[in-house]
C-alpha cells in the first residue's frame, strides 16, 4: 500500500493540476480538507438513521469505520467516503414495521454479503456482465423508483408541521442557488440547520416525548453525556418474518453497484487516470464488507458519496489521506451521545422539508443516468421499461405470495429487468426496434457550480 508523497510545496496546486490519490498536501491542509469531507457527508449520513429509527451514533461509527475499510481493501488508491445509503430507507422502514429492527439489520447484512460476492465476480470476470444486466435505462429506472417510492414518507412528516417543513425546504433550495462552491454543495445540511433553529424558537423543543420518558428534546440533549459508547444490536435471522423482508432489500444491491461503478469511473475521469477503473471490483467488495459489518452490529448500509465527489471536484484534491482524516473524525464523533441526541431531536417538520428534497434528488439521479447515457426513448422497450417500473414504485404496488411480501421497489425492479430483457428478445426476433445496450455511464454529483 503506497504512502503519500508531497504534492509540490504542499500548500498550492498549480492551474490544471490535481492532487492524486497517492499524493497529499501539508498535513494541516490535509486535516482541514478531511474535516470538510465530514461536513459534506454529515447532512445526508445522519438523516438515514434519523428517518429509519437507527441509532445515529452507531451509523456514524460504521460510516467512518467503513471508509477506513474501503481504503484498505482498495489498497489506498481510490478516494471515497462511505456514508449512509438512502437506498436502504424504504426496505428498512418496511422491515422494522414487519419484523423489528433485528429483521431490518438482517436485510442490511444480506445486501452487504451479496454486494461483496458481486465484487469478487467483477474483480475476476470484469464489468461486462453488469453492463449487460443493468444498462442505463434499467439502472436509471431502478434508482429513480427508489427515490420516488419514498414520497409518501416525506409527505407524512411534512403535514405534521407544514410551516417548519416549508421553511426548511425553501432554505435548502435558496442555499443551493445562492451560493457557489462548498456552501452550495451542503445546502441540505444548511437548510436542516435553518429549520432546526426555526423549530427551536417556535416551541418544538418544549414538547414532551412520550416515548422518551416524557422529557423534552432540550432536556434529553442536556442530560446526554459528551462521551459514551454507541448502541449496538445484532441482526435477527430467526424471526419468522425476516426471510420475507430480506427480499425487499435485494434491489438495493443494484443501486449500490450503480453508485460504486459510477464513483470509480467518475474519479478516473476527473483525475484523467483510466487505471483507476481496475479497482471497481475492489470497491464493490469493500462497500459490501463495510455494509455487512455495519448491519451486523446495528448500523445502516453504506455507499460511496456523491457529496464528497463534489468536494473533490471543488478542491481538486483526490488524496486518500484526507479520507483517512475524515473516517477517523467520524469515528470520534460517534462516541459522543450528546451529538447523537441532537440529531434524534430533529422535529418532524424539518425532516418533512428535507426529505421532500432528498427523495426527489434520488429520483433525479436515476433520470440523470438516462440523460448522461442518451437513452433512446423512441424505442418501445425503453419506454415501457421506465414507465411501468416508475408507476409501480411511485404508487407503492404490493404483492403477497405466501409468507413473502413484495413492495413497490422489489416489484418495480423486477418489472424493469423483465420488460427490458424479454422485450428486447421479442423485438430482435420480430425486428421491431430492440435497444442496443450501452455501457453504464458515470453517475456524477448533483449540484455544484456550473462548468
From TrEMBL:
UniProt-recorded name of the protein: Nitrate reductase
Keywords recorded for this protein, A-Z: Membrane, Transmembrane, Transmembrane helix, Transport
What domain of life is recorded for the organism? Bacteria
Q: Does the keyword Transport apply?
A: yes
**What organism is listed for this UniProt entry?**
Microbacterium sufflavum
Q: Name one Pfam family in it.
A: Xan_ur_permease
- Which PANTHER family does the record associate with it? PURINE PERMEASE C1399.01C-RELATED
Q: Which residues cross the membrane?
A: 54-73, 80-98, 104-125, 132-151, 163-179, 186-205, 241-258, 317-336, 348-369, 381-398, 404-422
Q: How does it sit in the membrane?
A: Multi-pass membrane protein
Similarity comment: Belongs to the nucleobase:cation symporter-2 (NCS2) (TC 2.A.40) family.
Q: Coiled-coil stretches, from where to where?
A: none
Where found, per UniProt?
Answer: Membrane
Amino acid at each position: 500500500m503506497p504512502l503519500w508523497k508531497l504534492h509540490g510545496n504542499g500548500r498550492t496546486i498549480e492551474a490544471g493540476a490535481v492532487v492524486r490519490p497517492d499524493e497529499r498536501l501539508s498535513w494541516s491542509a490535509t486535516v482541514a480538507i478531511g474535516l470538510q469531507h465530514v461536513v459534506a457527508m454529515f447532512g445526508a449520513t445522519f438523516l438515514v438513521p434519523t428517518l429509519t429509527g437507527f441509532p445515529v451514533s452507531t451509523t456514524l461509527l460504521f460510516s467512518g469505520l467503513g471508509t477506513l475499510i474501503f481504503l484498505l481493501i482498495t489498497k489506498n488508491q481510490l478516494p471515497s467516503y462511505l456514508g449512509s445509503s438512502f437506498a436502504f430507507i424504504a426496505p428498512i422502514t418496511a422491515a422494522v414495521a414487519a419484523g423489528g429492527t433485528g429483521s431490518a439489520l438482517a436485510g442490511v447484512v444480506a445486501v452487504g454479503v451479496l454486494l461483496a460476492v458481486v465484487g469478487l465476480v467483477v474483480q475476476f470476470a470484469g464489468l461486462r456482465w453488469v453492463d449487460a444486466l443493468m444498462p442505463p435505462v434499467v439502472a436509471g429506472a431502478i434508482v429513480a423508483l427508489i427515490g420516488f417510492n419514498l414520497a409518501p414518507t416525506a409527505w407524512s412528516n411534512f403535514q405534521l408541521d407544514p410551516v417548519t417543513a416549508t421553511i426548511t425546504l425553501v432554505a435548502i433550495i435558496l442555499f443551493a442557488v445562492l451560493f457557489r462552491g462548498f456552501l452550495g454543495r451542503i445546502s441540505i445540511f444548511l437548510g436542516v440547520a435553518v429549520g432546526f433553529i426555526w423549530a427551536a424558537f417556535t416551541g418544538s423543543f418544549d414538547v414532551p416525548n412520550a416515548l422518551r420518558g416524557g422529557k423534552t428534546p432540550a432536556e434529553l440533549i442536556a442530560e446526554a453525556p459528551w462521551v459514551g459508547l454507541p448502541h449496538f444490536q445484532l441482526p435477527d435471522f430467526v424471526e419468522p418474518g425476516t426471510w420475507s423482508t430480506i427480499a425487499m432489500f435485494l434491489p438495493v444491491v443494484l443501486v449500490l453497484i450503480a453508485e460504486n461503478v459510477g464513483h470509480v469511473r467518475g474519479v478516473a475521469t476527473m483525475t484523467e487516470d483510466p487505471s483507476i477503473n481496475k479497482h471497481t471490483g475492489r470497491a464493490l467488495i469493500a462497500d459490501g464488507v463495510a455494509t455487512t459489518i455495519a448491519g451486523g452490529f446495528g448500523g445502516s448500509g453504506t455507499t460511496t458519496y456523491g457529496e464528497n465527489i463534489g468536494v473533490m471536484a471543488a478542491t481538486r484534491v483526490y488524496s486518500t489521506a484526507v479520507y483517512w482524516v475524515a473516517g477517523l473524525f467520524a469515528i470520534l464523533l460517534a462516541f459522543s451521545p450528546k451529538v447523537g441526541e441532537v440529531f434524534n431531536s430533529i422535529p418532524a417538520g424539518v425532516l418533512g422539508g428535507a426529505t421532500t428534497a432528498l427523495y426527489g434528488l434520488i429520483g433525479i439521479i436515476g433520470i440523470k443516468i438516462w440523460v448522461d447515457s442518451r437513452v433512446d426513448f423512441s424505442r418501445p422497450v425503453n419506454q415501457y421499461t421506465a414507465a411501468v417500473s416508475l408507476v409501480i414504485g411511485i404508487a407503492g404496488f404490493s404483492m403477497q405470495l405466501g409468507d413473502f411480501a413484495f413492495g413497490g421497489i422489489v416489484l418495480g425492479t423486477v418489472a424493469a429487468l423483465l420488460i427490458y430483457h424479454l422485450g428486447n428478445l421479442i423485438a430482435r426476433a420480430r425486428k421491431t426496434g430492440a435497444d442496443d445496450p450501452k455501457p453504464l455511464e458515470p453517475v456524477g454529483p448533483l449540484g455544484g457550480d456550473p462548468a
